[in-house]
Amino acid sequence: MLDRLELLIGDNIINIQNKTVLIIGVGGVGGYAVETLVRSGIEHLILVDNDKVEISNFNRQLIASNATINQYKVDAFEKRIQDINPKCKITKIKEFITTNNVYLLFDYKIDYLIDACDTITTKEHIIELCLKHNIKFISCMGTGNKLDPTQLKIMDLRDTKVDPIAKKLRKYVKDKQLVGSIPVVCSSEDKKQNGVTTIPSNAFVPAIAGILCTSYVINDILK
User: Fold this and answer.
1) CA distance 172 to 137
2) CA angle, 194 then 197 then 201, to 5°
3) 116 within 8 A of 208, measured Cβ to Cβ
4) What are phi and psi of 100, to 5 degrees?
5) What is the Rg, in whole angstroms, of the alpha carbon atoms belonging to the chain?
6) Helices 28-39/204-222 angle, 10° precision
7) What is the average pLDDT value for the chain, to the nearest integer?
8) Is the dihedral of CA 170, 48, 34, 223 positive or negative?
9) Can you identify the CATH homologous superfamily of domain 3-222?
10) What are the boundaries of each domain within the chain?
């Protein structure tokens, strides 16, 4: 299955296969992270999401189709992952993670955490707890209202400028005096003003953000 990847990285494939990655939020961003992690050789995934597939997901979420509608996203992904690599061990957490239960994520042995959730207070606590427990992580900022995936970049949270989610997180980090690298995927594209309350989205910006999250994890494993 991974012959062509092994041609690129050699015996390092074993290091990838032995890692455990937790993904919180397996929607537009997190779904593509899951997909590319599996296809990159990760053999233990912890999927965290309490949502079911809806029609509104079809424009941007990898797992969303007529065949999976009304299924829990983590259940649908479990089937998809097993079709790709039956060796992959999957742990499912069907919980909506808040500040009240975020600690349960850290009951697991995690090598990497990908934060693709939408709740800012949860993102704040994930950053703080990952730094506290010395768990490597990457957090994705906003991908809605954007059309240019080439403006997405992996950077430290403190270097972000435009993103409103990143602005709130920077304040939290400063107020808490958190120390350490805080890698994020963030766009430098200005938010599109459209006058509607529902956040618009497309298929390609969240997808590239998720793939960048995987890129960070895999390249960190490879050093």
Assistant:
1) 17
2) 65
3) no
4) -80, -30
5) 17
6) 40
7) 96
8) positive
9) NAD(P)-binding Rossmann-like Domain (3.40.50.720)
10) 3-222
Structure tokens of 59?
């424009």
Do residues 57 and 64 lie in contact, with contact meaning Cβ atoms separated by under 8 Å? yes
Structure tokens that stand for 118 in this block? 């939408």
Strand order in the sheet with 152-156: 89-93, 44-48, 20-24, 112-115, 136-140, 183-187, 152-156
Q: List phi, psi (to 5°) of 90.
A: -120, 125
Please state the rounded mean pLDDT for residues 55-79: 97
DSSP letters for 36-61:
HHHHTT--EEEEE---B--GGGTTT-
Amino acid identity for residue 58 in this structure: F
pLDDT digits (tens, 9 = 90+) for 95-140: 999 999 999 999 999 999 999 999 999 999 999 999 999 999 999 9
Q: What's residue 137's pLDDT?
A: 98
Two tokens at 83?
């079709």
Instruction: Write down how long the chain is.
Output: 223
CA-based angle 216:217:222, to the nearest 5? 95
Cβ partners under 8 Å of residue 177, min gap 6: none
